[in-house]
Amino acid sequence: MQNSFNIAVFQGDGIGPEIMAPTLTLLDHVAAGKYALNYVDAPAGAAHYARTGESLPAASMEAARAADAILLSAMGLPDVRYPDGTEISPQIDLRKALTLFAGVRPVTIRPGQPTPLALTGGQTVDFVLIRESTEGLFHTQGRGEVTQDEARETLLITRAISEPLFKFAFDLAKARKAAGRGPGKVTCVDKANVFRAFAFFREMFDAEATKHPDIAADHAYVDATALWMVERPWSFDVMVTENMFGDILSDLGAGLMGGLGLAPSADIGADHAVFQPCHGSAPDIAGQGVANPMAMILSAAMMLEWLGGRHDIPAMIADGDRLRAAVEAVIAAGHVASRDLGGSAGTSEVADAVRAALA
Ligand code: ATP
User: Fold this and answer.
1) Pair (115, 228) in one structural domain
2) Do 183 and 91 fall into the same domain?
3) Which ligand 1 atom minimizes the distance to the CA of 291?
4) Do 351 and 241 share a domain, yes or no?
């Protein structure tokens, strides 16, 4: 087949394999006859570490590097740790090794979706938070200096990462506007009133904004953003922020969406991208067949849209959109809901409902 893509698949730990299997079946179903997705299994994670002493084998890293895109479910188990007590999280190693600077966290609330917000009649929320994912306050992660009396971590903001990050944000706003999903606006979320590093961040954002006269640009302080995400989340389109601020705000976003079972994500760099649900490996429900596969399926839909955009294949972009719409249709109908959404449907029942909604 002319359009054929290698996808590195990290099945991961806990519920990881349970939500990955139906997602791959759905991907094959939508791709049938139009393009081929070849899955390359990439063993990694906490269980793998417990068995072999390696959390991210070189061969899996190589498979990720060589792939057209990377699908990852969830990795890490609370009881399996490195000797220094830190968690096994190869997904963070991948982010660093492949310089995946743009953490894309869509926040959507559609009709029928449980949310702690009091939305009025048919009101929906649809914005994207972009979290820089390689530097910021995570720069000294694992290397902070701690003495008896004080502790230090360093925040790093670089031009080399910030400029492509902001370009990515404006390009995304443009694509969303073209697809009728947003007004075409990017908000820089920072703390430029207090820290010089964030004034520098904002300066580079403003410079990029001048190159996109068709897209509105504004700024917000991170504390006010937390408030507005709850008070008027519909006013955002694309937001872009530093690593730690994004870490916190993306969990707030997942909370607004009614929990982790519906929150997809992508970590995108210049040459590689990882697509994975926001949730972890949920060891408390692993092996029971009750995990909600929707966040994994929505992440796979983002992968189709990204691959389609990158390789100029409109059918792939359309399929990503179809897959997302099918998940939203199942949520709106409300007949088939997994336990986290207040229902009793199992993983395969939810996946079957999504497949039926595709037709
Ligand atoms: P990590 O630190 O690895 O991201 P976490 O602390 O965020 O993990 P999760 O593994 O995401 O924890 O689980 C948090 C809670 O959400 C658990 O009770 C888990 O069962 C539930 N949960 C997470 N993902 C799903 C899912 N796909 N379907 C149903 N419940 C889920």
Assistant:
1) yes
2) no
3) 28
4) no
Cα-based distances in Å from 326 to 112, 209, 289: 13, 35, 21
Question: Which of 186, 188, 134 shows the shortest CA–CA distance to 158?
Answer: 134
Whether 260 lines ligand 1, by a CB cut-off of 6 Å, is yes
Is 284's C-beta closer than 6 angstroms to any atom of ligand 1?
yes
Instruction: Flag whether 37 is in a domain.
Output: yes
Report how far ligand 1's centroid is from the alpha carbon of 277 (Å): 10
Q: Does the C-beta of 276 come closer than 6 Å to ligand 1?
A: no
One domain for residues 90 and 235: no
Q: CB of 81 within 8 A of CB of 88? A: yes
Ligand 1 centroid to residue 279 C-alpha, Å: 5
Sign of CA dihedral 68, 88, 249, 133: negative
Written as tens digits, the pLDDT of the chain (359 aa) is 789 999 999 999 999 999 999 999 999 999 999 999 999 999 999 999 999 999 999 999 999 999 999 999 999 999 999 998 888 989 988 998 999 999 999 999 988 788 999 888 778 899 999 999 999 999 998 889 999 999 999 999 999 999 999 999 999 999 999 989 999 999 999 999 999 999 999 999 999 999 999 999 999 999 999 999 999 999 999 999 999 999 999 999 999 998 788 999 999 999 999 999 999 999 999 999 999 999 999 999 999 999 999 999 999 999 999 999 999 999 999 899 999 988 999 999 999 999 999 98
Q: Do residues 316 and 305 make contact, with C-beta atoms less than 8 angstroms apart?
A: yes
Last residue of a domain, one of 200, 224, 258: 258
282 lines ligand 1 (CB under 6 A): yes
CA of 244 to the centre of ligand 1 (A): 20
Tokens 């705000």 correspond to 249
Domain that holds residue 331: 1-98+271-359
